[in-house]
């Protein structure tokens, strides 16, 4: 606001001038002097900042003698990168640090033949250097407000797969970039410059995805991927920008271990699925009559799928080794006695990638009526996705919104009111079955209009819930959540209120229409001692990837009165 410059680098060692963080001119002068100074070896500026030195040499047409940089040369030789692949790990709502997904770069070695194992390739990633003892809530708070330094690290790809795919149930999308050899070399040189430098980490903007955009910009000047970032850099959005800039040569899908296991089990007939559950839990022997009666090929598929399921549960540390080891051994021994082979069946590649889903910024306009008052409503939501948005490219049953603002203009008294300010709203409706029993849960906080009996006031709230969700078909699921709400406001008689309750509903998610219907009940225990019952039906019609029409209806009983709320409008995704 006052002019001047501030570098995003927060490490003094990144600058050659004491004033470099705030003066690009001083840093330029100091760098030109340093790279032309006498000397050689790893401590020289040309070895510490090889990308910076090469770029300045080109811009100023400097004649610099060759210089050996043993540490940098050995580092690049070890990485042995010929190509660069941008990897996107899908969102994982059970961790605040992974709610939007994650991106990192894979450094692919020369592929002389099909036997080249990319699992051994190295990766470049940027993440918050969080203290090991920080819990998820503290991580979210400090991550939002820059409480952690960001660290650029180089790790083997198989370590990333173990974390994201094998443990956290996250599918991976691999986008091979069309960078030329000189651009790959420049990207590595700039990575060397920042690899041990501190850049403060911010969850919404200067995050993992933002730093990778900067690396790609350095590799291919003029792409200006950083220029696409405004208030936030969501990983799936940044992948869209990379694709839109024509930087991607090919895309490969790598399903997570959970996706592969679920697919294999789903290919079994229902009767064999019951056998798989019993075998995995040790309730049935591999020599049981029901198993022995199967044809050899069916028996082989059953043993293969069950073994993979047991191995997954063991790797995810959900089952103790004392149980998993003997069950796995029995399955392998039984399988080895069957000569029948089974064709490897891989999960189907999703028709829509994560980067091909709707854009995350949404603006909405609506007209409606609450009781006897007509209103128009404007809603702005910076990110990310709710249950009724177009589901393609997003996790079914998952919802994540932050900083959503709902404002209403009531026509009867020409008043503009803030209806709700959503700080964060998360809902994870993961379906349960015989093999997987995840909890469904929700949490949210912000400010909303609440009825005190005599007026509606804007009160801070905190809400949460936990329960289960069950699939009723490929697009439909039912859920039941035990909930609790807390509200705090001076207009409440006692200053606060607490309301345990329940939320029972159905969700239908399809590429043409999505719907949410259910009933809620709360029993306010502290302030007004009133029961609040609600019947709700919400529907979105997806006209295109960028536009949806919506309608919402709510019938509520509170303070011995009935209120009806309805509104219709349009969502536009940017």
Q: How far apart are the first and last residues' alpha carbons, in Å? A: 27 Å
Strand content: 25-35%
Alpha-beta classification: alpha+beta
Tell me the quaternary state: single chain
- The whole-angstrom Rg is 28 Å
Spatial sequence of strands, sheet with the most strands: 8-9-11-12-14-15-16-17-18-19-20-21
- By DSSP (H or I, 4+ residues per run), the number of helices equals 14
Characterise this structure:
With 574 residues, the chain is an alpha+beta fold. 27% of the residues lie in helices and 35% in strands. The strands form two sheets. A twelve-stranded antiparallel barrel has the order 8-9-11-12-14-15-16-17-18-19-20-21. Strands 6-4-3-2-1-5-7 form a seven-stranded antiparallel sheet.
Short description, anyone?
The protein is α+β, with helices and mostly antiparallel strands and 574 residues long. It is built from 14 helices and 21 strands. The model has no long low-confidence stretch (mean pLDDT 90).
List keywords for this structure.
574 residues; alpha+beta; 12-stranded antiparallel barrel; 7-stranded antiparallel beta sheet
Sequence-ordered SSE layout with sheet pairings:
Blueprint: H1 24-35, H2 45-48, H3 50-60, H4 70-79, E1 83-89, E2 102-108, E3 122-128, H5 136-144, E4 148-156, H6 157-167, E5 172-177, H7 181-194, E6 199-201, H8 208-219, H9 235-244, E7 248-254, H10 257-266, H11 270-280, H12 289-292, H13 296-315, H14 321-336, E8 362-370, E9 373-381, E10 383-385, E11 398-410, E12 415-428, E13 431-432, E14 440-451, E15 456-471, E16 476-488, E17 496-509, E18 513-523, E19 531-542, E20 547-558, E21 561-573
Parallel strand pairs: 13-15
Antiparallel strand pairs: 1-2, 1-5, 2-3, 3-4, 4-6, 5-7, 8-9, 8-21, 9-11, 10-11, 11-12, 12-14, 14-15, 15-16, 16-17, 17-18, 18-19, 19-20, 20-21
Helix pairs in contact: 7-8, 10-13, 11-13, 13-14
């Amino acid at each position: 606001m006052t002019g001047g410059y501030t570098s995003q680098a927060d490490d003094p060692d990144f600058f050659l001038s004491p004033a470099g963080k705030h003066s690009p001119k001083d840093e330029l002068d100091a760098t030109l002097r340093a790279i032309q100074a006498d000397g050689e070896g790893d401590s020289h500026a040309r070895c510490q900042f090889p990308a910076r030195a090469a770029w300045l040499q080109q811009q100023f047409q400097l004649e610099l003698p060759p210089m050996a940089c043993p540490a940098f040369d050995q580092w690049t030789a070890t990485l042995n990168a010929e190509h660069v692949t941008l990897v996107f790990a899908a969102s994982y709502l059970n961790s605040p640090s992974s709610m939007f997904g994650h991106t990192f770069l894979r450094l692919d070695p020369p592929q002389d033949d099909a036997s080249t194992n990319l699992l051994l390739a190295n990766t470049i990633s940027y993440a918050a250097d969080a203290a090991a003892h920080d819990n998820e809530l503290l991580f979210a708070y400090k991550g939002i407000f820059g409480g952690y330094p960001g660290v650029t690290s180089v790790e083997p790809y198989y370590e990333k797969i173990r974390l994201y795919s094998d443990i956290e149930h996250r599918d991976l999308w691999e986008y091979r970039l069309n960078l030329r050899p000189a651009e790959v070399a420049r990207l590595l040189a700039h990575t060397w410059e920042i690899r041990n430098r501190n850049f403060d980490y911010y969850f919404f903007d200067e995050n993992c995805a933002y730093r990778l955009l900067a690396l790609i910009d350095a590799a291919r000047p003029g792409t200006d991927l950083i220029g696409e970032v405004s208030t936030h850099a969501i990983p799936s959005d940044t992948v869209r920008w990379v694709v839109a800039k024509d930087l991607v040569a090919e895309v490969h899908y790598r399903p997570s271990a959970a996706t592969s296991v679920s697919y294999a089990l789903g290919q079994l007939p229902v009767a064999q699925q019951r056998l798989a559950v019993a075998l995995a839990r040790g309730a049935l022997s591999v020599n049981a009559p029901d198993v022995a009666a199967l044809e050899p090929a069916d028996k082989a598929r059953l043993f293969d799928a069950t073994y993979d399921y047991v191995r997954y549960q063991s790797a995810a540390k959900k089952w103790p080794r004392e149980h998993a080891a003997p069950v796995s051994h029995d399955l392998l021994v039984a399988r080895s006695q069957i000569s029948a082979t089974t064709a490897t069946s891989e999960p189907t590649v999703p028709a829509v990638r994560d980067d091909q889903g709707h854009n995350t910024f949404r603006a909405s306009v609506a007209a409606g009526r609450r009781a006897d008052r007509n209103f128009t409503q404007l809603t702005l939501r910076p990110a990310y996705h709710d249950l009724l948005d177009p589901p393609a490219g997003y996790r079914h049953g998952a919802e994540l919104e932050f900083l959503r603002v709902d404002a209403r203009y009531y026509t009867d008294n020409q008043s503009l009111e803030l209806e709700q300010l959503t700080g964060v709203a998360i809902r994870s409706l993961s379906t349960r079955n015989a093999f997987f029993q995840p909890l469904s849960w929700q949490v949210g906080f912000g400010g909303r209009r609440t009825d005190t009996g005599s007026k509606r006031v804007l009160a801070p709230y905190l809400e949460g819930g936990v329960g289960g969700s069950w699939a009723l078909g490929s697009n439909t699921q039912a859920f039941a959540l035990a909930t609790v709400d807390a509200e705090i406001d001076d207009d409440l008689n006692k200053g606060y209120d607490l309301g345990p309750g329940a939320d029972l509903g159905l969700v239908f998610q399809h590429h043409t229409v999505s719907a949410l219907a259910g009933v809620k009940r709360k029993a306010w225990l502290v302030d007004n001692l009133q029961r609040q019952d609600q019947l709700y039906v919400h529907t979105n019609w997806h006209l295109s990837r960028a536009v949806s029409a919506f309608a919402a209806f709510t019938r509520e009983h509170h303070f011995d009165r009935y209120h009806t709320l309805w509104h219709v409008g349009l969502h536009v995704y940017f």
